[in-house]
Specification:
Blueprint: H1 8-23, E1 31-38, E2 45-52, E3 56-63, E4 70-72
Antiparallel strand pairs: 1-2, 2-3, 3-4
Length: 74
């Protein structure tokens, strides 16, 4: 949970760097990004998994921001 502390331009730099690393991923050298962040409107905290190659993103859960509960999404 770090992106919320960055200015918008810095958040874009961080996510662009991760996406660029994902674009270089192969079956032999895959990349997975686990993201635990507030939604942009700060209505909930979401746990996401994005895997490369391919860049498939899946919402794994919504969570209490301090881990008190996790609502897993199948």
């Amino acid at each position: 949970m770090v992106l919320q502390y960055l200015e918008a331009a810095d958040r874009k730099v961080a996510t662009d760097l991760i996406a660029a690393a994902g674009a270089r991923a192969t079956r032999e050298r895959p990349l997975a990004w686990i993201s635990f962040e507030w939604t942009p409107d700060r209505s909930e905290v979401q746990l996401w998994l994005t895997c490369w190659p391919g860049g498939e993103a899946r919402l794994l859960a919504t969570c209490h921001p301090y881990g008190a509960w996790i609502d897993w999404r199948g």
